[in-house]
Design a protein that fits this description.
The chain is an alpha/beta fold. Helix 4 packs parallel to helix 5. The structure holds S-adenosylmethionine (SAM). S-adenosylmethionine binds next to strand 3.
């Protein structure tokens, strides 16, 4: 009989990020993580955020939880977490990813809901927000879920992010942190700095900017079609996102 493969529960030689440029060329393969949920973030990102901005037994929120990367990391690091998504397919994935046994682990609560209206979360009850919204309609996550913000064009998306920022402010405890990963896009050859617009929205909602981190993207290699077009139409491929750390 084939021996059962032993699971690696933690990244090898993990070191906390120390500066404002983060880059994870090997996205991370420990625990139940994989790259199958489209646009999911590397587990190194929530691991760094959780370790720096929360402590054991805190209550964390990821209201755009997708494939559940943040849930797995919170559980392993003994943080309790609420994961919310509008898409039942994502929530099913989250359940699968989190049904492992682990000693001294956090509790995971998975909820179907809308990040703009988290009625089931009390005011000032959350110790850390760690989340990764869709970037307007760059990747569409569903076909016909009306509340899915990945259907919104940029202007509408930014309007809706005002409601998200207000909800973040309402549920977070004072002096605690709200970490949001956002990317930019390009239209008619020019960059649309969506991430800076989102930053302004969070500042207008009452947050202060604790850190602005540049996260390198490794899935946009300049080869073939993109290399040809980058030269032909003279534009640079976007190869970074921003991780904003806001404080209430
Ligand atoms: C970029 S993905 C999150 C990926 C996640 N960080 C991971 O590692 O798997 C964004 C998610 O936001 C969800 N979403 C879109 N609109 C939403 C809304 N109004 N409320 C909650 N979730 C929403 C999408 O269904 C998608 O799963």
């Amino acid at each position: 009989m084939e021996a059962k493969k032993s699971i690696k529960w933690e990244p090898e030689d993990f070191e906390l990020e120390m500066n404002t440029v983060w880059s994870f060329p090997n996205r991370g393969k420990w625990a139940t993580h994989d790259a199958k949920y489209r646009g999911n973030w590397s587990p190194y990102i929530p691991r760094n955020i959780l370790l720096r901005y929360s402590k054991e037994e805190d209550m964390v929120l990821d209201q755009f939880v997708g494939g559940g990367t943040t849930l797995v990391e919170a559980k392993l690091l003994n943080r309790n977490i609420i994961g919310v998504d509008v898409n039942p397919v994502a929530l099913e994935r989250c359940k699968e990813k989190c049904t492992f046994e682990y000693e001294n682990c956090g509790k995971v609560y998975i909820k179907h809901g809308d990040a703009r209206k988290l009625d089931f979360v009390e005011d000032e009850s959350i110790d850390l927000i760690c989340t990764h919204p869709p970037y307007a309609n760059i990747i569409e996550y569903s076909e016909d879920i009306r509340e899915d913000l990945s259907h919104c064009k940029i202007k509408e998306f930014l309007e809706q992010m005002k409601l998200v920022a207000a909800e973040c402010y309402r549920v977070l405890k004072k002096d605690k942190f709200c970490c949001i990963l956002m990317g930019d896009t390009r239209q008619k050859g020019c960059v649309v700095p969506m991430s800076f617009e989102v930053m302004k929205i969070f500042i207008e909602a009452g947050f202060t900017t604790k850190e602005i981190i540049i996260k390198e993207q490794h899935n946009c290699r300049a080869t073939g079609y993109w290399k040809t077009n980058s030269i032909k139409y003279n534009f640079l491929l976007l190869a970074h996102e921003y991780l904003f750390v806001f404080r209430k």
